[in-house]
Amino acid sequence: MKKLLAASVAGALMMGSLNVQAADVEDAVEHRQGIFSAMKWYFAPMGAMIKGEIDYDQAEFTRRAELLSALTHMAEEGFVANSAEGTEAKPEIWENMDKFSGGFDQLQSNAAALVEASKSGDMGMIKPAFGEVAKTCKGCHDNFRED
Ligand code: ASC
């Protein structure tokens, strides 16, 4: 009886986990896409300030850099197994996870450096720091995103 109960509990857990798995992949994709979209939201106006398309405001720039920096720690966990299909993520991500993950490390340190540079209020420091972040975005897109 105990054995039977254990078997049916295990069976129920297994079935449950199959359902949870499909939902988990969907949630993970939604999570990472939301984070990337938020990253763009915070990033793009900083570029516009640097180009002079909108007025430069030091506090606003730093606020954006800080929030962007926080977001750079959130997207990677959305790249769960079997989650490339139907997205722009290339399967190469999962074949080169060390390189992919290293790109996130670089993005995180470049974004943290942009926060520090932004506090100087000196465009001579801010501009190259912003460029390093943009370069890291682009590097990963070139390698791991379908255009
Ligand atoms: C953006 C945006 C990106 C990055 C990238 C930087 O504003 O949407 O994906 O900058 O183009 O190279």
CATH topology: Four Helix Bundle (Hemerythrin (Met), subunit A)
In CATH terms, the superfamily is Cytochrome c/b562
Q: Number of helical runs?
A: 5
Name of the top-level CATH class: Mainly Alpha
Number of strands: 0
The percentage helix is over 70%
| Main sheet record | none
Q: Measured on Cα atoms, how large is the radius of gyration?
A: 20 Å
Strand content: under 5%
Q: Name the ligand types.
A: ascorbic acid
Question: Which structural class matches the secondary elements?
Answer: mainly alpha
Number of domains: 1
Low-pLDDT stretches = 1-15
The global form is: elongated
Distance between the termini: 57 Å
Examine the secondary-structure arrangement and name the CATH architecture: Up-down Bundle
- Spell out the helices and strands N to C: HHHHH
Mean pLDDT across the residues is 91
Describe the structure.
This protein has 147 residues and is mostly helical. The chain has a single domain, classed as Four Helix Bundle (Hemerythrin (Met), subunit A), CATH 1.20.120. It contains 5 helices and no strands. The chain has helices at residues 2-51, 58-71, 92-95, 97-120, 123-144. It starts with a helix and ends with a helix. The model is unreliable at 1-15 (pLDDT under 50). The structure holds ascorbic acid. Residues 40, 43-44, 134, 137-138 line the site of ascorbic acid. Ascorbic acid binds at residues 40, 43-44, 134, 137-138.
